[in-house]
Amino acid sequence: MFMSNNACLVPSSFWLTGIPGLQSLHIWLSIPFSSMYLMAIVGNVTILAVIKVERSLHQPMYFFLCMLAVIDLVLSTSTMPKLLAIFWFGAHNIDLDACLAQMFFIHCFATVESGIFLAMAFDRYVAICDPLRHTLVLTHAAVGRLGLAALFRGVLYIGPLPLMIRLRLPHYQTQIIAHSYCEHMAIVTLACGDTTVNNLYGMGIGFLVLILDSLAITASYVMIFRAVMGLATPEARLKTLGTCSSHICAILVFYIPIAVSSLTHRFGHHVPPHIHILLANFYLLIPPILNPVVYAVRTKQIRERLLYILKAGSQPK
Q1: Which pLDDT tens digits describe the chain residue by residue (317 residues)?
Q2: Are 46 and 57 in contact (CB under 8 A)?
Q3: Which of 43, 120, 207, 314 could form a disulfide with 292 if both were Cys (CB 3.0 to 4.6 A apart)?
Q4: Strand, helix or coil at 2?
């Protein structure tokens, strides 16, 4: 770490506080956080394994679900090991490059996840509104291209963030980040100098991803509901809507925690700092935990395969 002429720091590393104001409870907080991380890993690996071995699940919706599982594993693993290291070993220090890499993975794969939800909405739209062409439109190759497009968009949108920090913001007021992980705005607010470009770019990406994606998903479901309401019987309507229920639940699980965390961060000026940080961690942990549960409960094939595996494992050899 060096001192610049204007007394701002030029840090080679940062210091993550963990959960500000709750440092004395870190060892106790590690219990629920480690449990949730373990649940996320087990749940998503189980989903990947079940879809791999169950050939009846080799369909577009479940391929997208596999992508979600991988993304959730990346998101949770980008933050939880470091947070648990802080809780257990007091490993607060993080190298500057490692901090920027963590920031990139968090924001990039959150963007990719939003893109996958948008692709899943398109899949449900075609399946319900144009069922005869569903297998022609959503081929395995098309699903792969949609997944790659979501990944490319995430890299394209988020790639400039660490570069802009590296190139435009070398000086900082302090090396202490009052957060449990390297979040973009948590770093930018510490910088000396003009951060207007960084702030505007961050807000622009947030608008493009959260607002436009959610509007596009909403539009697809408006058309889906119009098509469903045109079905002849209530039973047919419920059955058709049932094919969308898992996707709708997963969307709510993803967007609601982000919206609550963002609104609390921007407008909850009287909310204690540890509440902000806990919410920021929960929005990265809740989807990886609940997505496997939602799909296991709502999807008959996954549920039956899991029950078969559990029964086979409990039988005496």
Answers
A1: 444 445 788 899 999 999 988 888 999 999 999 999 999 999 999 999 988 988 888 899 899 999 999 999 999 999 999 999 999 999 999 999 999 999 999 999 999 999 999 999 999 999 888 888 988 999 999 999 999 999 999 999 999 999 999 999 999 999 999 999 999 988 999 999 889 999 999 989 988 888 899 999 999 999 988 888 887 777 877 877 777 888 888 888 888 888 777 777 666 667 788 888 888 888 888 889 988 888 877 777 788 777 877 777 666 65
A2: no
A3: 43
A4: strand
Look-up: residue for tokens 């996958």?
116
- Indicate the pTM of the whole model: 0.91
Return d(Cα 183, Cα 283) in angstroms, integer: 13
Q: Six-digit token pair at 294?
A: 């939602």
Provide the token pair at 282: 């929960």
Match 């920021």 to its residue by tokens.
280
